[in-house]
Amino acid sequence: MSPLDDCGPVAANITEQLLRAGIAPRHAKRLAREFSEHFDDLTAAHCGNRAVARERLGTDDIFVAQALARPELKSWGARWPALVYGLGPSLMYPAIVLASILLILGVGAMWKASPWFAPLDQPTELAVFRGMFGFLTHGVPIVVALGFVTLAYRSRRITRWSTLGVAMVCLVGSFMDFGVRPSVPPDVGLSVWLGWSEESVFNPSRTLAWLLISFGVVGPLLAWVNRQLTHCPLK
């Protein structure tokens, strides 16, 4: 059941029609609630006769058409699907990585300046940074892809753009690489890099392995969402 179908059985189909027509989920939920409340008022005014109340309320198509006549109610994904779902995941990935690195640097500086600071031995420090940068390199693309699949499902915007965007961010992530090594001289800290390297770009087996891992995680959710939307037609 959709998280937006909490407005009663009368409004459930209206909610689905609004979402598939491109209305933003928050507006679709509000409009469906108003629709349900108006239906309840008409039912009470006609002594509980739901058929008469439904006739007075008008058809679903009229209600949806009235909502579509207000372009401000449409979601960003419906207005610019290529930008939001096609390029969005690949743009979100480096933005999250950059923000995470800045956060790591900021927290590290605060920790070193605190009176509770205790330096880690080099093997532990290497393990911590390799874990963090390994997640930024290969974990974040999967998280971004899962997030955009969820967003597309909530907005009923599973289209070629959303599928392409998810595939692109998984592909970009499969080419990424990182390195964490002791600096020279070793007492000055660690040497860290993240990006594309000759080994990561020109190593088909490595790239294919990360692609299979990414699609193995994201693919089942994307297939389930497509099946849900395909086999749950409007009533």
Number of strands: 2
Approximately how much beta-strand content do the residues carry? Answer: 5-15%
Distance between the termini: 14 Å
Ranges where pLDDT stays below 50 over 5 or more residues in a row are 1-8
Q: How would you summarize the topology of this molecule?
A:
Elements: H1 9-20, H2 25-45, H3 50-57, H4 60-68, H5 76-79, H6 81-113, H7 122-154, H8 160-175, E1 176-182, E2 190-196, H9 198-201, H10 204-230
Antiparallel strand pairs: 1-2
Helix pairs in contact: 1-2, 1-4, 2-3, 6-7, 6-8, 7-8, 7-10, 8-10
Overview of this protein structure:
The protein has helices at residues 9-20, 25-45, 50-57, 60-68, 76-79, 81-113, 122-154, 160-175, 198-201, 204-230, and strands spanning 176-182, 190-196. By secondary structure, the chain is mainly alpha-helical. The protein has 2 domains: 9-74, no CATH class; 77-230, no CATH class. Helix 1 (9-20) packs antiparallel against helix 2 (25-45) and helix 7 (122-154) runs antiparallel to helix 8 (160-175). The longest helix is centred in the middle third of the chain and has 33 residues, at 81-113. The protein is elongated and about 85 Å long.
Supply database-style keywords.
single chain; 235 residues; mainly alpha; 2 domains; two-stranded antiparallel sheet; 71% helix; disordered N terminus
In short:
The chain contains 10 helices and 2 strands; from the N terminus they run ααααααααββαα. It is mainly α.
